[in-house]
Specification:
The complex is a heterotrimer.
Chain A (H helix, E strand, L loop, with lengths): L18 H7 L1 H4 L4 H11 L6 H29 L4 H6 L3 H7 L24 H25 L3 H36 L2
Helix pairs in contact in A: 1-4, 3-4, 3-7, 4-8, 7-8
Chain B lengths: L2 H26 L4 H25 L31
Helix pairs in contact in B: 1-2
Chain C lengths: L27 H7 L28
Classes of the chains: A mainly alpha, B mainly alpha, C little secondary structure.
């Protein structure tokens, strides 16, 4: 069961429209290494995990990723909400605008819609945890690319926060992998 | 959103974030009693601050996790993505 | 200086991530701005001139 708290995990400030940057940032909403994929992956893998510890980590990080989706959506929403159709066209966001106006949708930076093919739920806990660690590194790298592209200090500040969270999540999944190996080796001894 | 409300909300965000990070830490270090004590202390602090915020500005959670003043204060603006910090 | 725990050798064909040893945590607002309350997990990114100063990021309005 989920409860929604009406506050962002991290405050967002956008001082001027930037539909070009929004077009890039939206990839962390609906792209291959974005927060939706991360959230769905962890919240789905948790069902078949053999230890309560792993179920807790996947539930909790999966839930935090939902909060990150909200932050990314808030960034994109505020970056395009005051943009004129001219600015949208100049930013190359007119294709997206034609289908969605200024609404939020699950696409990557090139407009490709999200797919469950971005995630795996292999059932093998070691395989799943490795996928999770890789996902965190891919997300971290993506935030670095977005930071490279932006010149707005407020936007960069939010991207930095989200990037650091990926580092912490990687650490937790790594610890969980270690605990899982320990559990599996004890189980094998019978 | 006025200055007092913003500062109050920022304080909540900071406390809440401490709890998220401690929570994830405890998920892989369940035996760390010191971290657990800090989690519980911070949680009490957070709950007190949140109740104070909600008395002034309305509920932050629904489905019965918080009470609402009249008229129903949940379905109101602004929503979190509509708040840009630093604005008057 | 964070307390160092000796890392046991990692077996072959296995990925190993050392366990974090919690020593101190940042105050809540500093932790929020850093993206973690644990200083040993902070990983900086960006050229020097882009590294955030104390006056950047969300802060209470005076």
């Amino acid at each position: 069961m989920w409860i929604y708290e009406r506050k962002l995990e991290y405050p967002v400030r956008v001082s001027r429209p930037d539909p070009r940057m929004a077009k890039n940032i939206i990839t962390q909403y609906g792209g291959p290494d974005g927060e939706l994929g991360a959230s769905m992956r962890y919240l789905t893998q948790r069902y078949s995990m053999p230890t309560s510890q792993a179920k807790a980590v996947l539930t909790d990080i999966g839930t935090e990723e939902q909060a990150h989706m909200e932050i990314v959506a808030a960034l994109v929403f505020n970056l395009i909400k005051d943009a004129t159709p001219e600015e949208i066209k100049r930013a190359g966001l007119d294709g997206y605008y034609s289908d969605h106006d200024k609404a939020i949708y699950f696409v990557n930076a090139a407009g490709v819609p999200w797919t469950a093919a971005y995630i795996q739920s292999k059932g093998d806990p070691v395989a799943d945890l490795h996928e999770d660690m890789a996902a965190e590194e891919k997300a971290r790298a993506t935030y670095e690319y977005l930071i490279n592209l932006s010149d707005d200090p407020d936007v960069i500040d939010v991207l930095r926060f989200l990037r650091e969270r990926e580092v912490v999540h990687f650490q937790r999944f790594g610890e969980t992998l270690d605990l899982m190996h320990e559990y599996l080796s004890h189980r094998r001894q019978f | 959103m006025d200055r007092a409300q913003f500062n109050s909300l920022l304080n909540l965000q900071a406390l809440s974030f401490t709890l998220v990070d401690l929570n994830l830490y405890l998920d892989t270090h369940p035996w760390d009693q010191r971290a657990l004590a800090e989690y519980n202390t911070t949680a009490l602090q957070y709950q007190a601050c949140r109740q104070q915020y909600e008395r002034a500005y309305g509920p932050l959670v629904n489905y019965g996790y918080s009470l609402s003043q009249a008229p129903w204060r949940w379905a109101v603006d602004p929503w979190p993505w509509e708040i840009c910090w630093g604005e008057g | 200086m964070a307390q160092q725990v000796p890392i046991p050798p990692c077996p072959l064909a296995r990925a190993c991530v050392p366990f974090q040893c919690y020593v101190n945590r940042l105050p809540p607002l500093d932790g929020l701005k850093a993206g973690t309350i644990f200083p040993e997990l902070i990983s900086r990114y960006g050229p020097a001139e882009r590294v955030r100063g104390d006056q950047d990021g969300p802060r209470p309005i005076q």
